Structure formats: C-alpha cells, structure tokens
Structure prediction request, 451 residues.
Amino acid sequence: MFTQDSKDSEQTKGRWVAVWTLVQFWKRKTFLAKYLHSEFRKNRVPPIDRPFVTELVQGTVRWHLYLDWILRQFVHNQYDKLPDVIHAILQISLYQKLFLTKIPDYAIVNEAIKLTRQGHQEKLVGFVNGVLRNVLRNVDEIDYPDEREDPVQALSVLFSFPEWMVRRWTERYGVEFTRSLLEALNRPPATSVRVNTLKITPEDYFEILQDEGFHPQFGLYLREFLLVHKSRWVEKFPFYHEGNFSIQDESAGLVAHVLDPQPGETILDMCSAPGGKTTHIAELMRNQGRVIAVDLYAHRLQVVEENAKRLGLDCITSLVADGLTLSLEPVDRVLVDAPCSGLGVIAKKPEIKWRRTPRDIREMADLQSGLLENAARLVKKGGILVYSTCTIEPEENDHQIEKFLENHKDFVLEPPDAFVGEKVTDSGKWVKTFPHIHGVDGSFVARLKRI
Prediction:
C-alpha cells in the first residue's frame, strides 16, 4: 500500500512517463499505444496509474494544435524556442485544466514544477510557474479564429486537426458535416467486444460483463458484438485468456459478414495481421475449412497465431508473403483488408492525424491498387473478393473499386445489404461508415463476385 508521499511520487512518475512519451512521439511520430506499453514496463508504472497516464498522453496528442494555440498567446514568440520537454509539460498541464476537471490548479502547477526539475530545466522553473499561473487565470479570455472569415482555420484550431485535412473534408462534405465528423473523431469511443460464439453466446457473456460491473450494451449492427463503456485493460475483462472474446470495432466486424465465409471453404486473407478479421472469419466458418493468413512479416503473423490459439481456432494457416506478388491456386473467397491512411480510426488513434500527409493517401492508393490486381488472380470463377479499409477517403475506397471494375469486366459489384443490413450501406453499393453518423469507426467494404 502506498503512503500519501509515495503515492504522490508514483503520480509524478506517471506524469513524467507521459511527458517523456510526448517528447519521443513528436520526434518519431510512432504509434502511441505500443510505445506507452513499453514505457509502462520499463518504468514499472503501477496498473492503477496507467489509465490516467494514457489519458494524459492520448488527450494531449488529440488536442495538440488547440493547446498550442492557447499557449502561444501567453508565451508569444518564445514558444518555438522552448525545449521539447517544456512544450510537453505546458501541454499536459493545460490539458489537465481543460479536460480533467477534478485536478485543482495548484496541483497542476506544483506537478509542472516537479516535472521541469526532473527534466533538468531548473533555470526554467520560474518561467513555467509564471506562464501556467497566467494561463490558468485567463483561460477563458482566449482569442480564436472567426469561423465566418476562415472556417477551415477555425475548425482546425477548435477541433485540433491539421488544416489540410479539414480543407479536404469541408470541400467534399461542407462545413457542418465536417464539424460533426471532427467532434466524433475527438470523442474516445466505447470498447467494442466481439464474442467468440464457438465458446459462449453473446447473451451469456453480456450477463457476465454486467455482473462484473462493465455496463455492457448490445452492438449496433451485429449480434455477436457488445459495447463496454467502463474502460479497463483488456486482460482484466473476464475470460480473456480463455478466448471468449476479442476486442474489435464493429465496423471491422462488418467485413467478415460481407465476405460471408462458409464452413469447409478456403479463404485467403491477404493482409492478415494483427488478425482480428482473420479470426472473425474462422469463427463464422465454425472453425471448419481453411483460412490462409498472409502477411509480409513473420513477427506480425505470430500475433495472429497467438490470437488463434487463445480463441481455440485451428483452421488458420499462416504464410509469410508479399500480397503484391503472392501466387496460389485460386480459392473460394479473398479478403483484401488493405493498408490505408487510417483516417477513419482517429478517435482511437489520435496520433494518426499528425502522422499522415496528403502524399500518404496517394501512396496508399497505389499500394491498394496493386493488391487488388493480384487478388483478382487468386479468386476462383464464381468466387468472392472483398476489399476493405479503415479510412473515409474516396481515393482509397469507392474510386479504387470503380477503377478496378473498369479494368476487370469479369468482376461485378454485389450489394452488401443482405449481409449487414441497409443502415451501413451507401446507395446499396458498398458499406461506408462515418463515426458521427453510424457510431463506429470510419470504414469502407466492397463485395465483388468473379463471373
């Protein structure tokens, strides 16, 4: 048990891990969750403190541009000259003031001073103290861009998104649609659980979660999905190690249903890792038949294999190969869950909005096109090819499929309504979800039949 002093020390350690993670993120633009888990282990951050540190890091990255906008008004021209560690300390301090209402101002300032000393910036202790006290006193007096004069800049600052991304969406969808989209992408989503129906019914697992205090709800579109609003570590969910469920967004679950795999068939998953859709396919096949899980890297396929073992699925075969050049006998169904810009999952991974550029979208589109070309050769006549992404960009979605159909007269588009219902389909042609409309990640799924 911690004494008050030791508890204070643990909290400062947790905040320091948050500061250090932020500094490293802006240098490397890495994925936050993976880096955070590594820092938790390295610094022995107690499990009870990890949700708070995760909130500090993800929240500060999510609101990076907004926090900087405010801080620049108090530091002026000196802001860009400050050491990275001071940027991070000021940002997480302001984030706590604006978004974590239970922390009093004096505690925010005191912790910032400790962190400044820990960051070997003793000469800036007075500066941090003065700036923060000034910001906290006057945070309601900030000037923001006028939306009537420049809606792109205003939305960019107020919702903390890069201007190129906001411009792209306002030009395509208009200001109000974009505002709603940005609001949804800034809202941390509920955890979505896919029940392994080979082991337990969704209704029975619902009751277990309810008894354990997780406050579950049934999914919006698929029977085997449950939503959990009380966040905990995945491993703490009941019967995780027994393989009763996987963590997966319901939009990702739509993909396997559109593919509609049947027991006894051979299915090729060309971009398998980390295996959420692969294992879902195997569950829908009742673990009967063969699922070939392909990925470019063996260490990523190891994660697929570990998950398959945990879930009790032995119909999955892994294969290290490049989906662009893979050669196999044609199979019943092929899934191309293509690498993409990921702009549909920013709510879960806020770092994506700072990692991506317009060039990434163009490069992803070229890669996706190559994967589709090769996949077309690997589908039997009469077989099914499903293409999916977790982005909302037309170049990676509908434009990609339209171009494919122009060049492949032996494929036809099949409406997905019969497999996932009309609520998530767009003009009856394909699945297209948006966070603010459908309550799940942004995604795209198209079903093609080889004739």
Notes: Residues 1-6 have pLDDT under 50 and may be disordered. The chain has 19 helices and 13 strands. The two ends are 67 Å apart (CA to CA).
